[in-house]
Amino acid sequence: MPRSVSGVEMRKRQAAHIEAPPQVPGQPRPNTCCLCWCGCCKCLWSEDRLERSEFQTCTKMDSIEAAEEQHPSLDEALSWSRSFEMMLRSLEGREIFREFLRSEYSEDNLLFWLACDELKTETDSSVVDEKARIIYEDYVSILSPKEVSLDSRVREGINQSLAEPSSLMYEEAQLQIYTLMHRDSFPRFLNSTVYRDLLANRRRTCLET
Questions:
Q1: Could you tell me the pTM of the whole model?
Q2: Average pLDDT over residues 60-87
């Protein structure tokens, strides 16, 4: 029959465990939780796990907050004036350009271009069929709630492609909208208060830091 452990002996074991020297790096930590019978939260193993959990949580939250507060640098914002393509490939660039297009009631041109760009990356035929149909209904059909500036020849080519949709069926239409935004909307964007205010804010931030 196992020998019972007295309360005095149990307290001695706990005291010896708490006063034990620090764990040598590289050696496995003993399973100290077996002595934490009272649930008093003084177990070193429990405290260590709690500290690591709190640190990981804080680190994750700091990363999320840093991502949310991220803004384009002054150099990046200035580079957009030299390259329309560079601006479109930047998430922040697309957002500020979209804000400008919204003020000119031509936001749908950018949304159409982005939808076509996303379609080109699809390889699943069922997904291609669905996305191609959605793009057509949203931007190309005469009943479309949105309006993009496509000529009749390009629209007719799209209509003929609907029988067998492909990921590249809007490629010519996408190029036409790209050219329109580049030659027409982009120069006005560079002279707009939206872009000038962004540059002013970035310059002010640089001076403050």
A1: 0.65
A2: 73
